[in-house]
Amino acid sequence: MWGYSGGGPYAVACAAALPDRVTRVAVAAGMGEIGEWASREDFEKTDRMMLKLSQTRPMLARTVMAISGRWARLSPKSAAKSFAKELSPSDQAVLAAYDPGEFMAMFTNAVLRGARGVVDDYRALGQSWGVDPGSISAPVKIFQGESDTMVPLRHAEELARRIPGSELSTWLGEGHLGTVTHVDEILEWLSQPLPSST
User: Fold this and answer.
1) Is residue 195 one of the residues assigned to a domain?
2) I want to staple 61 with a disulfide (CB 3.0 to 4.6 A). Which of 53, 162, 164, 165 is the partner?
3) Integer CA distances (angstroms), 92 to 10, 82, 135, in order
4) Whole-Å CA distances, 107 to 10, 70, 73, 118
């Protein structure tokens, strides 16, 4: 399994709950468990707002997300420029290398059929994971940009501390989008043969 950003907690939960099915786990820039070793205040403005609204005013959260998605589809260049304000310089460089429409599709595709799913994700991410990372038996490698302004390095360090035998790999000077430039590295690790059981 490979979980990126808000997908990190899902990968961790699957590895803890399905040990007979999950054989290797990569977590890249994964969000920490809010209420345990993370808090809403750790994140950038947009994520802080959506984490709160998803819990307290979900209908408003869906409206905000739907409007944002429509704006990003109609004016991807403006949306990308606004998004870049919450990024580190290294992430801004990654963003600049892509056509704004292609890059923003990562967001706009998530709200093509409405914003309910995205808001449900925010609500889930704002709660306890309901699993013990310490119970994971599969090999785990955590990848994290040291200059990530969206998910702090501390989240990765804490996750690595809580998963026995896990490995933390940091990217010097890179941010939340370091995953984009290190896809081959992550896939290479995930595709390694499993240790022999004999």
Assistant:
1) no
2) 53
3) 27, 11, 37
4) 18, 10, 9, 10
Q: Among 194, 175, 178, 195, which Cα is nearest to 186's?
A: 178
Closest by CA position to 57, among listed 66, 67, 49, 68: 49
* 152-190: pLDDT as tens digits: 999 999 999 999 999 999 999 999 999 999 999 999 999
- Residue ranges making up the domain that contains 133: 2-190
Domain presence at residue 151:
yes
What number of other Cβ atoms are within 10 A of residue 113's Cβ? Answer: 8
Residue 101 lies in a domain: yes
| Residue 111 belongs to a domain | yes
- pLDDT of residue 198 exceeding 60: no
Does residue 197 register a pLDDT over 80?
Answer: no
Q: State the CATH number of the domain containing residue 153.
A: 3.40.50.1820
CA 173, CA 88: separation in Å to the nearest integer?
9
Whole-angstrom distance, CA of residue 56 vs CA of residue 69:
21
